[in-house]
Write a structure and sequence with these properties.
two-stranded antiparallel ribbon; Jann2411-like fold; about 5% strand; 4 strands; mainly alpha; globular; about 190 residues
Length: about 190
């Protein structure tokens, strides 16, 4: 598996996407309920053979990915610097060492027999470590939408992201605010 350690943004995005597949984010609907969904997630985030690992996954691997999702969510929910570093370092443990390839990209070989959960763990760990190092622990946040239980890692340049899924949560919040203003205007008018 190849991951650019200096390009933590993609890995942090995968960590955010993984966390936000949970049922509590979707009001009871788990968006990673079975092996086909895991394959689709891995293909969507197709970094270094992740899809191939997902296609070989079994139910135990899916359970391990669900456990990883909870671990990453816990890190985002409790963003103390030492805790983030310790937790993310543990997430990178399935890597067998780090080398540099001919394109100056870091290569993180997974141990023999690695699973999709191992690969996702390393990716999430790299994302968390990169954000802590480059942007700080203030970039780990809960979604700002009042009805959402999501969380995210803000890798935007200005660091002002408010929603776990801006296209969904941001739009819902804007529509609700617009409707509330319209209702208030109607009420004031008469």
């Amino acid at each position: 598996m190849q991951v650019a350690l200096d390009d933590y943004v993609e890995s942090a995005g995968i960590a955010t996407e993984l966390v936000n597949t949970a049922a509590e984010v979707w009001h009871g609907d788990d968006h990673l309920p079975d092996l086909p969904a895991l394959v689709a997630f891995a293909d969507l985030h197709g970094t270094g053979g992740l899809g191939d690992l997902a296609r070989r996954a079994r139910q135990a691997d899916l359970r391990a990915v669900h456990a990883l999702r909870g671990t990453v969510r816990d890190l985002i929910d409790h963003p103390e610097r030492d805790r983030l570093v310790t937790g993310a370092t543990a997430l990178t443990s399935p890597a067998g060492g780090v080398t540099l390839d001919d394109r100056a990209r870091w290569v993180i070989p997974l141990r023999s027999g690695a699973t999709v959960s191992d690969a996702l763990s390393v990716l999430c760990g790299v994302g968390v470590l990169g954000v802590v190092h480059a942007l700080g622990e203030g970039r780990f946040r809960a979604c700002g939408a009042p009805t959402c239980g999501g969380a995210f890692i803000d890798t935007t340049r200005p660091g002002r992201r408010r929603y776990c899924m801006p296209g969904l949560c941001g739009n819902r919040t804007n529509v609700a605010n617009h409707r509330a203003r319209q209702a208030a205007a109607r009420e004031a008018a008469g």
